Amino acid sequence: MKSSILLTLTASLTASTISALQATTTRYFDNQEGACGCGTSSGAFPWQLGISTSSNPKIYTAAASQALFDSSGSSWCGSGCGTCYELTSTGAAPQGQGTGGVSGQSIIVMVTNLCPNNGNQQWCPTVGGKNNYGFSYHFDINAENEIFGDNPIVNFQQVACPGQASSDYAQCQCK
Question: What residues contact 152, with CB distance under 8 A and at least 6 apart?
Answer without folding.
Answer: 25, 89, 90, 91, 92, 93, 98, 100, 101
